[in-house]
Task: structure prediction
Amino acid sequence: MEDHPLNSTSCLHIVIDLLKQRGVTLDDIADIVMFLQKNYIPDLTLEYCRESVYSVLKKREVQNALLTGIQLDIFAEEKRILPPLQAIIEADEPLYGVDEVLALAIVNLYGSIGFTNFGYVDKLKYGKLEQLNDKSAGVHTFLDDLVGAIAAAASSRIAHRQKQREECLDTPADSSPPRS
Amino acid sequence: MEDHPLNSTSCLHIVIDLLKQRGVTLDDIADIVMFLQKNYIPDLTLEYCRESVYSVLKKREVQNALLTGIQLDIFAEEKRILPPLQAIIEADEPLYGVDEVLALAIVNLYGSIGFTNFGYVDKLKYGKLEQLNDKSAGVHTFLDDLVGAIAAAASSRIAHRQKQREECLDTPADSSPPRS
Amino acid sequence: MEDHPLNSTSCLHIVIDLLKQRGVTLDDIADIVMFLQKNYIPDLTLEYCRESVYSVLKKREVQNALLTGIQLDIFAEEKRILPPLQAIIEADEPLYGVDEVLALAIVNLYGSIGFTNFGYVDKLKYGKLEQLNDKSAGVHTFLDDLVGAIAAAASSRIAHRQKQREECLDTPADSSPPRS
Amino acid sequence: MEDHPLNSTSCLHIVIDLLKQRGVTLDDIADIVMFLQKNYIPDLTLEYCRESVYSVLKKREVQNALLTGIQLDIFAEEKRILPPLQAIIEADEPLYGVDEVLALAIVNLYGSIGFTNFGYVDKLKYGKLEQLNDKSAGVHTFLDDLVGAIAAAASSRIAHRQKQREECLDTPADSSPPRS
Result:
């Protein structure tokens, strides 16, 4: 690990393990993606949602946001953060927005169409998000927003790909750069 | 007008008039703020929501986003935009995200706690937003997102002020900068 | 065109043509990328920078931001925008920030490491950007920021790929999703 | 402290003390603001820059970003962060962008015109920022970006106020909301 601190393949497995330790599986996130996209893509499968979540998790920016946010959740659980930040994070203070800031950085990677989906599931506390918001089950101030953001990002990715697939039925691909 | 193109007081009135011309009153926006905040602040009045909307509209960045977005809506209605953008804006293509980008710039001015509220009302199409999404009533591709963003911003502003008011009951104000 | 308003391959060619009409070639942008990255990657070629610019331009969000911004520049040149926005865009008013907002949406697609590069070339007015800022050569209020953003995005893309290449010398690839 | 975890007045003093402990005074930040704005406002004083920095620091979102970022710097200095994040933050890895994400959240509060200034001083490592980047003087992975962001925000604030002052010479103020 020391030799390749930012190797994104090994980092991917670390991140997936860390999510699991904090009680979140890829299927939990895929489930939120399914909820967000099923009305737009009738034949959508959970397997396809899961692959999209997996692709999002391969991005280094996503891994970094997850590692940082979960680390802060853990420190808050262990009560090792200095006051007044310890109390703020522990209580998931409504005016503390650093968690949303990290979440938005993930959503942004797939374009602005994901903002709406992020806000929607974050407000509804859909699926796994409800459980993460139960304060008796540990501190998940960052994790709930990050999970919502990954689901919104994976949804945007599916929407963009769906469009491309529809277009490809009609259009010959041509992706070599022109000579200048 | 020519002499003070960016005078924010006169610009405020221009923006309020422009909103009215496009079918949106301050009360329409205040109504969305009320929907978003009433569960958190029991004695909230529509008048207070309206003042918060008015304060948001005083900000130059908000005025600029509104002027730009509504102008694009109008050009699209008049079919004066070059293809393929004309068709994209006219249809409010789901993958066109420039409207959300302008909206987020408004929300950001009041911090990250507004993202969730923006996404929520944008998805629900609450109140006036439903009407703005009815394609038969003109092109409002930008306006619906901008109105949702102003409502989310005004809600964040109320939440921040509510907190300050609670604190002021206990704490002596001290806001002069320290000598260094 | 009418049939596939958002086909990203045909849209790519439209965008490249539009850039050319407004006086910007892929090589102009590649030149800025080279300036930003040459100190970090000794064997970097202009051809590689150009390919990275081309990849950035394939993204629909980038195309949409470009189409929208250039359209506003053209309308301002033709003096068809309503006051006070006409004067604001024509003069590239320092407090008008919608151009930066669109630019940032492009930079964000490649993660937050691009912010610094965007701000840096935007302030320096490096290369083509200096020319686009010469008010006598037409209105390019949006275009200069968009070109800077594309260059910053292409630089981020190169930095991420360079890292991956370094890692691949040591690490066996493993990119299939785990069974849950 | 426990009773008012988010009281923004007491939080302000905590944040100013924390900055001082980490080697940053208000004057260090005011100095960067002066560098950014002196060409635009000939009679600008360091005292005025300092007051603007102070105003920025009063915002709760700014306080939260500072508390969170500095806490992560301290944990990294104490080598208490889990791998691989410990190595990433300690080395200020170029592809780690969470620090820029927090910085941008601060800049955004004063609108998009601050992006350019943030990127510029962050790249130049002007003034105090150079010292914070010297790895031998502790871990300041977050702090350098946050200080640059506060300076950029304070600059935007000055630019907006300067404009308002110019306008007020000509325009009668009228800021009461219209009756609807």
Summary: Confidence is low (pLDDT under 50) at residues 1-5, 171-175 of chain D. Chain D touches chain C at residues 40, 94-95, 97-98, 100-101, 103-104, 111-113, 115-120, 122-124, 159-160, 163 (CB under 8 Å). Chain D has one domain: 26-162.
